[in-house]
Specification:
Blueprint: H1 9-12, H2 18-22, H3 30-38, E1 41-47, E2 53-59, E3 66-69, E4 72-77, H4 85-92, E5 96-102, E6 109-119, H5 122-126, E7 137-149, H6 152-157, H7 174-182, H8 190-198
Antiparallel strand pairs: 1-2, 1-5, 3-4, 4-7, 5-6, 6-7
Length: 201
């Protein structure tokens, strides 16, 4: 058996424990709220009506995603590459999404699932000013599930360890990478890119 079918999975993996099943909650409890309030970074995953899947990084100051209630989160949308793949998936597809929240120094992560809808309400956006400007839009997330992942994946990767950090200079600048891939634009050093990024947060 080299390509397992669904029925084969039970011969490879044991059944999850009752505790693992029970930890999936239908809302944001006190612990999930605290974790989100400490989190400066998450990954947003969405799926399109054509079956395509997108995952994109989102970040801000700790607590940039607001817990508006036990079943509602609010996420500001900051300047990015303007592809808006995630938002196209939400407005054109089912709206279903998943988030994984990270807190530097903590190996456990928090997964939140639900459905999203977009808002460009001026009052809401004005309440979410960060880095001196309001977001372009806000994502309302109606939460249907939340649970904590154990820390084994981050422990294996040593994600937060200073010993595993690499010097940025060992990899070409993102400008150079994209130039090599597309031949568009002029290559710039990572220092130049970084200084420009700081004006676009």
């Amino acid at each position: 058996m080299t390509d397992p079918a669904s029925a084969d999975l039970t011969t490879i993996y044991p059944q999850p424990t009752a505790r693992v099943i029970a930890k999936a909650r239908p809302d944001i409890d006190v612990h999930a709220r605290k974790f989100i309030e400490m989190s400066p970074f998450c990954v947003l995953a969405t799926s399109g009506s054509d079956g395509s899947v997108d995952a994109s990084p989102r970040g801000g100051m700790p607590g940039f995603v607001t817990v508006a209630g036990p079943n509602q989160l609010l996420m500001p949308d900051r300047a990015g590459n303007n592809r808006i793949d995630s938002f196209r998936n939400i407005v054109e597809g089912t709206g279903r999404l998943q988030l994984i929240f990270f807190v530097p120094g903590i190996d456990e992560t928090l997964r939140v699932g639900g459905t999203g809808r977009l808002s460009a309400d001026p009052d809401l956006l004005a309440s979410m000013i960060e880095f001196g400007k309001p977001p372009r839009a806000a994502l309302h997330i109606d939460v249907t599930e939340a649970y904590f992942h154990c820390g084994k994946a981050l422990m294996r990767s040593k994600l937060w360890s200073a010993d595993t950090r690499v010097e940025r200079k060992v990899f070409p600048s993102i400008s150079q990478v994209i130039h090599d891939q597309t031949t568009l634009g002029e290559p710039e050093s990572q220092e130049v890119v970084y200084e420009r990024y700081k004006t676009q947060l």
